[in-house]
Structures are given as structure tokens and as C-alpha cells.
TrEMBL record:
The active site is at E666 (proton donor/acceptor). The keyword Chaperone does not apply. SUPFAM superfamilies: Zn-dependent exopeptidases (SSF53187). Residues 383-709 form the Peptidase M14 domain. GO terms for molecular function: metallocarboxypeptidase activity; zinc ion binding. Carboxypeptidase that possesses the specificities of both mammalian Cpase A and B. Thus shows broad substrate specificity, being able to cleave Cbz-Gly-Leu, Cbz-Gly-Val, Cbz-Gly-Phe, Cbz-Gly-Lys and Bz-Gly-Arg in vitro. The keyword Glycoprotein does not apply. This is Zinc carboxypeptidase. It comes from the Bacteria. Its cofactor is Zn(2+).
Length: 813
């Protein structure tokens, strides 16, 4: 049975956007609904987005974060302890910033604003144009170096460096084949892929990351490009004696060169599936999204009581954008209010009085339009945000309805077909499955690049890298690069701070054109565990314009249902990674709590918690390998411990309903500035040079997760455990258990045989390690341990009749 709670008071932000900004006042909920002041556009309505920026807020403690959530503030996933409290980041317009200051919040300077967005868009457009121009013709290959050499122990190595005229396009793949000496065939010595080398975001050339170990000196090599270029060259001997390199195989990486929209990402995955049919399967998820589409709209009037707007019945892309509407002064006295329709042109002749002055109110026009049979087939009219509409309207010229969508024609307006790339040599369900998914939140532009880079590395390195081959052979990997394609398209082309999808559940009172950037559902609040509908904090069930609107019900959104469908239909999925941005976090369940008493979802058991912590050491070391980025210990741990409550998130869904061990990355760790000796936040959409580095290092992290998953999948080693005396005092002894690896311990203190129904060693508390057990008299402790992979210590059968469990007497003085 669901718990009940007071509805969260939200109206985009503090009710400031419940009315036009010109009517907003300093305290929430105090706007005057009857005022006839001139209407300024909402933060969401203007081309420059009315100065919206990513702002710093400092609160005293986590209760301040909960308060911001309750007020509907659009918070980023970023929490940082500072000297005077906790720093959080929020997306705010200048008016919203001032309203929070008037509430007593310490709103500080901006991290990024619309000028940063404009620079990103310009940079991406230039990169896309360059890629498109390169794709038009066969590339030219220029060989910079081709040589073999020996190290001090006479091991032979091959070194090749080639520049492609299309190398700025990250989809350009160069392959080198070589012979086994004069007179032998090209390819007889081997074939492998070169790695694309960039510096400061600029393409330099293709090469081996490390010289390639070979067994015979070649004389000729042929380099071919997937763009059509080919060149054959002599391979000479390098006379130097360089220091021996580490490793005996090349590893190729760096397959992203600009921010990518979901259409590009999906095309990339489709191409990979076609190129590697023996290692991949492209899965069409069953639920198509709403699509990058909206109804067309037009708004008339400037004062609240006289504003009306119309919305097409058809989507703009399906004819709504062809509709026009005019409000006409008939130029005669005592004229009646009439509506006429010709094709897709709606004309409203306004009523006048005896002196010829217009008398039609907004409400009257709305009623007339909605009551006209032909007009009602084309559109619906509404007064402004529930206003009574008693103000007299003004005549206008012909106004074209528009869906206001700005993406190019290459972005389809139809419902989006989400696709998962399944990678593995054995894709029959016999191998442990790992689910990697990205961009649940639209504005997190780096995250799909992490999924793209991860997929490319797995497939491009399979033939030449033994470690990659082990991963792909021993696991069943599912990669969903964009969970929220509609919102991501909208973020890239219309409103960069879009977080949600594009499904509009708002009633007429919130569905005017100025609110268009506030519509949608937060996909990562739409799941069924720890949801706002169950009383958990960090989402809204009542405000359709809240940035954390959870939707009308749990799993209402096709994006969320697609995730659930995947993990339900492939029950071999045992581990997952949900990649978000920004802040540099590594987190796991539980992810939600109820504000009252801070009632947290049940914590994972101590064995799983230990597995999370042990795995984090390895995975975050892999992240750090790329450029030295360290994820702080304070940003590593359960979501509720290191961030805040996120009601209805996907990691909780998969863990509590299916036992899937799931992590959350927040890419984009703070960058340390040695000049100021301060860490600087990078934001959702850093310049691509920084975004590229984040994609590379967290793709390293994804490979680390897969390595952890492979160790889990192939683990046949039984754990070992012992009793550990913590403290002895007269009359009592305190002990716990020590285990050789992350494992759960089941024990009894009454002399009985331990089973899976026996007490299980628990966690002592948040970040406090395992519990201690105190006994008051000499006690026989019987126990066994079982690791996360299911290996039971000493091959003990808890459900059988064996006696080979551990046994020890704990003495009390």
C-alpha cells in the first residue's frame, strides 16, 4: 500500500513561472493572478533563454538541499563540502536567482551560461561540417613512418604512423597489413588496426599506442582506410635502440571527435553492428518514444487577462506548422464575434460595440474558436495559465503556428527507435550480462560519448588485444548509448539545459508556448522503486513543469519501460553502469530516502557493499590512468550518502527488483587549477576538448567495470573467513568476522547449524564498516561465508546436512 504525503509545492521554480516573469515577486506563491501588467517572456521562451545559467548555491547542510528540492529548484547532480556548508549547483534565470536570495539562500556566481553554449554549438557545427565534407570523397593516406626495430633483448617491433585526409572524423579507421619479408604476401605477417592520435583535441595521425611485437621483420606494408584510401610502402629498419616498451600489443582508442546527437550515435551503433556481425547484435527496444515533435502553437496578447494561445491538434511536423490564425477588427460598429476557416487558415472576426471598438475578451475568443466545428478540428484555444481571460484582445495580422523546433531535417520528428548494441562472442544468455547505459538526462552531452567510445574499443581491439578478447568472449555486454533521445535532441538544438524527455503531460494552464522548455518527464525519476509515489524525496508527482517531474505514474515513459524490458528479457544481466554528468562521482544504491526521519531504502548487505568498495578501487584506478583524474573518496559511495535523494532512479529499480549490481558514474570531475589552488567545476557541456578527455577516462572506467564483471563471472575461488576479536572486557567479548574477499557471513550463536536463514553479518552504519557482535558468556560461533559470485566457503552446503562449517568458541573473562 502506498504511503501518502503532502504534495510538493512546486511550480517550475518557487511558483515564479506560474505567471509571466514580469509578474513574479520575491517570495514564492505570491504572484498576482489578476494583474494586467505587460508580460515578459519566461526564461524558456526567448532565443537566448533569458540569461539562464548554471549557478552556485551554498547551503548550511543537507536539509538545505532537501528544501531546494521541495521548492522545485533545478539542481545538478553536484554536492561539494565547502568551508561554510555545502555547495550545490542549479540552473537558474536571473529572476530565479534573485527569488532564492530573497528567500535567504546564498546564490553565488555562474559556472557556465549561454555564451558557453553558443561556443559549443559553433564548435560542434564546424566539426560536423568538416566530417560531412570529408565523407564526400575517398581519403588520402600519407605515411609518416614505417619501420621495424629491436629492443635490447632482440624482440622485434613494428612502428607505423599514417595521416589520413579524413582523420579529423573519428569514424575513420586505418588498418595495416604486412608481410614476412621480401617475396612474401602482404598480410602474411599480420593485420591490425591503428589508433587515432589526437592532441589538444586536434587530429595528428594514426599510429600504434605502443610499438607492435612481431616475430619476423617485414619488408612491405599496406595501410587501408574504411573511407577508401590505400597505400603500400616499404618497411625499413630503425637504427636506434629505444627503451623497451611495456606490453606486447597495440590498443586503439579515441573514436569521438565532437558532441553527437542521438541520431548520429544511433547511426554509429548501426554501422558497428554491420561491420562486426560475428560479435554484435542490434536490439530494437519495443517502446518507441514520443519523438522529437510538438504541437504547433501561437500566442496572442501581452497582458495576462487578455492573453490567449492556440495549439494544433496535429504535431507541427504533421501539418500543425501549416495552420495560421488571425484576430481581425471588422472595422464596423456592433459586429458579432465570428470564426471562419478556409483550408488551414482560421480567421476570428472580433466583436465591436456601437462606436466600433473591439469588445471580445480572451475567454470569449477561446470559446468561439473551440465551439466552431471546423476550427476545433485544427486547433484548441486556451486562456493564459488558467486566467479568467476577461481582458479585451487586440487585432493581429496573420500568425503562423509553429512547433518552435530548430533541429535540422536530418533529425526525424517521428517516434524514436531506441537501439541497444549487444556485444559478445556468445550471445545466447550463457554468459554474465553487463548493461552499460548513458544519457538518461538530456543535457549531459558527454555521457553518450562514453558509451560510443566503450563500444568502439571493444570491437576495434578484439582481434589484437588479448584482454579485450577475454572480456568479449566471457561476457554478454549490452550498451544503450542514449536513454533519452528526444530530450537530447531538444537539448542540442533548442534549449541546452533540457533535462527531461519531450512528453508533455501539462494541462492547458501550463501548456502555453512560453512554458515549452519546462515540459517533459525526468526519466531517472520514473522508475518503480523508492519513487515519489511511495513518498520518497527528490522528485515531483504534482508539477508537470518541475525538472524532476516523475510523470503521471511509475514507468509511464517508454524510455524507462525499455530499460526494464531489457533487464527482464535478458536475466543474465547481473551488473550495470548508468553514466551521468557531472561532478566526478562513483555511486551505488540506495539512492532515495524519505525526508521525515531520513528513512533510507534498505541498504545493500555488507558483502555487496564490500564488493562495491573493492570494485571502486579498481575501476576508479582505471579512470585515473588516462590523465590522472582522481574521484574523491567523499564522492564515492551510496547515492544517499554522497549526493542526495533521487526518488525513482534506475539503479534502485534494477537492484531492488532484480538484484543487478549497479553503479552510477557522474563524469566530469572538478579540475584543479594550480594557479588559484582551487577545484573548478566543469558543468554539463564543457568545451569539447574537456568533454573529450572525460569521455576517454570514463570509457577507461567502463572497461574497468567489464574487467570486474569478468572476474565475477569466472570466479570459482571459495572465500575464507575467521573470527576477529575486537574487544575483551570483564563480562563481555566483542567480535566480528574477517573475510578474504567481499562476502556475506551467516552465523549462529546457539550451537545450531548455520543456513541461509541464519543471521547475516550486517553493516554497522553509514560508512562505518561491519557490525560488531557482543556476547556475555562463552559462546560457540558456527558460521560460513559466501562471496558475491555464490561460492560457498569450504563447499559447505547450507541447505544440506554437512558439518563442514566454521566453528569457534568465543571466550568471556
Amino acid at each position: 500500500m502506498r504511503s501518502t504525503r503532502r504534495p510538493i509545492r512546486r511550480g517550475r521554480l518557487l511558483a515564479l513561472l506560474a505567471l509571466p516573469l514580469a509578474l513574479a515577486v520575491s517570495a514564492p506563491g505570491l504572484a498576482n493572478p489578476t494583474s494586467d501588467s505587460a508580460v515578459a517572456p519566461d526564461r524558456s521562451s526567448s532565443g537566448d533563454q533569458n540569461g539562464v545559467g548554471l549557478m552556485r548555491i551554498v547551503v548550511a547542510d543537507k536539509s538545505g538541499i532537501d528544501r531546494l528540492n521541495e521548492l522545485g529548484v533545478d539542481l545538478a547532480e553536484y554536492v561539494k563540502p565547502v568551508d561554510n556548508g555545502i555547495e550545490v549547483h542549479a540552473i537558474l534565470s536571473p529572476e530565479e536567482s534573485q527569488a532564492l536570495r530573497d528567500q535567504g539562500f546564498d546564490v553565488q556566481d555562474a559556472i557556465s551560461d549561454q555564451s558557453d553554449y553558443a561556443e559549443n554549438v559553433a564548435e560542434r557545427s564546424a566539426a560536423v561540417r568538416a566530417v560531412q565534407s570529408l565523407a564526400a570523397s575517398t581519403d588520402t593516406l600519407t605515411v609518416l613512418r614505417s619501420e621495424w626495430f629491436t629492443s635490447l633483448d632482440d624482440q622485434l617491433f613494428l612502428n607505423v604512423e599514417v595521416k589520413s585526409s579524413a582523420g579529423a572524423d573519428s569514424t575513420t579507421v586505418l588498418t595495416v597489413s604486412w608481410d614476412r619479408g621480401a617475396g612474401t604476401e602482404i598480410g602474411s605477417g599480420g593485420t591490425t588496426t591503428l589508433s587515432r592520435f589526437t592532441d589538444a583535441g586536434q587530429y595528428m595521425y594514426h599510429r600504434f599506442s605502443n610499438p607492435l611485437a612481431i616475430d619476423v621483420a617485414p619488408s612491405r606494408a599496406t595501410i587501408t582506410s574504411n573511407k577508401g584510401g590505400s597505400v603500400t610502402v616499404d618497411v625499413g629498419r630503425w637504427l636506434g635502440s629505444p627503451r623497451k616498451v611495456t606490453g606486447d600489443h597495440p590498443y586503439v582508442s579515441d573514436f569521438v571527435d565532437h558532441y553527437m546527437d542521438p541520431t548520429e550515435v544511433t547511426a554509429r551503433f548501426t554501422s558497428l553492428a554491420a561491420e562486426f556481425p560475428k560479435l554484435t547484435q542490434l536490439i530494437d527496444l519495443p517502446y518507441k518514444t514520443n519523438g522529437y515533435r510538438r504541437q504547433a502553437q501561437a500566442q496572442f496578447g501581452t497582458a495576462t487577462a487578455s492573453i490567449l494561445y492556440v495549439t494544433s491538434k496535429a504535431y507541427g511536423s504533421e501539418g500543425g506548422n501549416d495552420i495560421t490564425m488571425s484576430l481581425v477588427n471588422p472595422g464596423a460598429a456592433n459586429a458579432p464575434l465570428t470564426v471562419g476557416v478556409s483550408g488551414k487558415a482560421v480567421t476570428v472576426n472580433l466583436a465591436t460595440n456601437g462606436s466600433g471598438a473591439v469588445t471580445s475578451t480572451a475567454a470569449q475568443v477561446v470559446a468561439a474558436v473551440n465551439g466552431h466545428a471546423d476550427a476545433a478540428k485544427l486547433l484548441t484555444a486556451s486562456t493564459y495559465r488558467g486566467n479568467a481571460g476577461t481582458g479585451v484582445v487586440a487585432a493581429t495580422g496573420v500568425t503562423q503556428l509553429t512547433d518552435n523546433l530548430k533541429a535540422p531535417a536530418s533529425v526525424s520528428r517521428d517516434p524514436f527507435q531506441m537501439k541497444v548494441l549487444r556485444i559478445g562472442k556468445h550471445r545466447d544468455g550463457s554468459k554474465v550480462g553487463v548493461f552499460l547505459y548513458c544519457q538518461e538526462h538530456a543535457r549531459e552531452w558527454v555521457t553518450p560519448l562514453v558509451c560510443v567510445e566503450s563500444a568502439e574499443r571493444l570491437l576495434r581491439n578484439y582481434a589484437q588485444d588479448p584482454n579485450t578478447r577475454k572480456i568479449v568472449d566471457d561476457l554478454d555486454i549490452f550498451i544503450l548509448p542514449v536513454v533519452n533521445p528526444d530530450g537530447a535532441h531538444y537539448s542540442m538544438y533548442d534549449y541546452n539545459m533540457q533535462r527531461k524527455n519531450m512528453t508533455n503531460y501539462c494541462p492547458a494552464a501550463s501548456a502555453d508556448p512560453a512554458n515549452r522548455n519546462a515540459w517533459g518527464v525526468d526519466v531517472n525519476r520514473n522508475f518503480s522503486v523508492g519513487s515519489v509515489f511511495d513518498g520518497y524525496n527528490g522528485a515531483s508527482a504534482t508539477s508537470c513543469t518541475s525538472e524532476t517531474f516523475a510523470g503521471p505514474s511509475e514507468l509511464s515513459e517508454p524510455e524507462a519501460r525499455n530499460e526494464v524490458w531489457l533487464v527482464d528479457n535478458f536475466p543474465n544481466i547481473k551488473l550495470s553502469m548508468n553514466t551521468h554528468s557531472y561532478g566526478g562521482y562513483f555511486m551505488w544504491p540506495p539512492g532515495a530516502y524519505k525526508t521525515a526521519g531520513r528513512e533510507v531504502l534498505p541498504r545493500v548487505d555488507q558483502g555487496t557493499e564490500a564488493f562495491f568498495w573493492t570494485s571502486s578501487d579498481y575501476i576508479l584506478s582505471r579512470v585515473q590512468e588516462y590523465r590522472g583524474t582522481a574521484i574523491w573518496p567523499g564522492r564515492t559511495g551510496p547515492v544517499t550518502d554522497v549526493l542526495y535523494s533521487a526518488a525513482g532512479n534506475s539503479a534502485d529499480e534494477h537492484w531492488y527488483n532484480r538484484g543487478i549490481i549497479g553503479w552510477d558514474f557522474e563524469v566530469g570531475a572538478d579540475v584543479y587549477n594550480p594557479a588559484t589552488k582551487r577545484f573548478t567545476a566543469v558543468g554539463f557541456q564543457p568545451p569539447f576538448a574537456e568533454g573529450h578527455e572525460e569521455a576517454m577516462e570514463f570509457a577507461n572506467g567502463n572497461i574497468g567495470i567489464l574487467e570486474v564483471a569478468r572476474a565475477y563471472a569466472t570466479d570459482k575461488i571459495q572465500p575464507k573467513s575467521t573470527v576477529k576479536i575486537v574487544k575483551q572486557e570483564p563480562g563481555e567479548t566483542t567480535f566480528t568476522f574477517s573475510v578474504s574477499e567481499p562476502a556475506n557471513v551467516y552465523y549462529t550463536l546457539d550451537g545450531s547449524r548455520p543456513t541461509f536463514d541464519s543471521p547475516k553479518l550486517a553493516l554497522a552504519g553509514m560508512r562505518e564498516g561491519v557490525q560488531n557482535i557482543t556476547v556475555k558468556s562463552n559462546t560457540t560461533v558456527n558460521w560460513f561465508s559466501v562471496d558475491i559470485a555464490g561460492n560457498v566457503e569450504s563447499n559447505y552446503k547450507p541447505d544440506g546436512n554437512g558439518k563442514n562449517h566454521n566453528k569457534q568458541t568465543v571466550s568471556v573473562k
